[in-house]
Amino acid sequence: DSGWTNGGNGAGTVYELYASTGVNTDYGILYSGTGTGIITHNGLSANTTYYYKVRAINADSIASGYTSESSTHTLAVAPAVSIVSVTVSSVRVTWSNTNPGSVYELSASTGSNGSYGVVFTGLYQANTDHNGLNSNTTYFYKLRVQNGEGIWSGYSGEISTHTFAAVPGAVTFGAVWQSSVTVNLPADTNSAGTRYSVEAKAEGGAYAEIYSGNYAASVPHSSLSANVTYYYRVSATNFDNVTTAYGTENSTHTLAAIPGAVTFGAINDNSVAVNWTDGTNAAGTRYELQEAS
């Protein structure tokens, strides 16, 4: 908005307001009339310097000299932020350089319209990296820019993304029995709500999922075969449904089943044929036969 006083002129004096985007150059008339209030100049370009001057016209249509030139800058408009790439602990952000030579300020938060902190302040750069972040966490970003007078624009629209989940470590084992194994998951280094998948296979077989859900300290695996090697691995999925690589594989063996009761075959004066069943143990199980007299 532009305004001026009457400068001591009488009522009915006509005033002409001129505007330009260059000092003392290419002025165009913006207003002609008897008012001295506020005149709104619309349809301007963002982050641009505009110059103004006024003159008065007397009753004989003779113009006075112009007032001293005054100038101001329109506010800049912050460009939209976009996400370039994401890792477990970093986010790369970019935006268009819509205001060359202007200072930009990028802010980040872990809550929508929450407590923002400044990540970057300076002239335009193609990419800005936000490092040292937590795994599988939602980060929000917004941007503002200064105009030629150092006045900040409003913020761009808020944008968000999620860091990747951290790859889980190797499982360990709790109780191991003939037909079950308690699988202990590694310590949870991801944020609450991260989904985990535990997969298992018998030696020579294919992996199949035995658990999917939020972090659990241990997962039971039952209905197993006796004296068989079982392998386990874990992956994690972030809030954008991006799944990590598998953690290091680890394995254990179920206990051997107790063999069936001993029976006897041929009995001679110096020998006895002793028989037993394998007790559902896998091929290759070693047995120990003891005798006493």
Set out the fold topology.
Layout: E1 14-20, E2 28-33, E3 49-57, E4 70-73, E5 81-86, E6 91-95, E7 103-109, E8 117-123, E9 128-130, E10 138-145, E11 159-162, E12 172-176, E13 181-184, E14 195-202, E15 208-214, E16 218-221, E17 229-237, E18 250-253, E19 263-267, E20 272-275
Antiparallel strand pairs: 1-2, 1-3, 3-4, 5-6, 6-9, 7-8, 7-10, 10-11, 12-13, 13-16, 14-15, 14-17, 17-18, 19-20
Describe this structure in words.
It is a single chain. By secondary structure, the chain is mainly β. Helix content is 0%, strand content 40%. The strands form 6 sheets. A 4-stranded antiparallel β-sheet has the order 2-1-3-4, with no helix packed on it. A 4-stranded antiparallel β-sheet has the order 8-7-10-11, with no helix packed on it. A 4-stranded antiparallel β-sheet has the order 15-14-17-18, with no helix packed on it. A hairpin with a 5-residue loop joins β14 (195-202) and β15 (208-214). The protein starts with 13 loop residues before the first strand and ends in an 18-residue tail after the last strand. The mean pLDDT is 92.
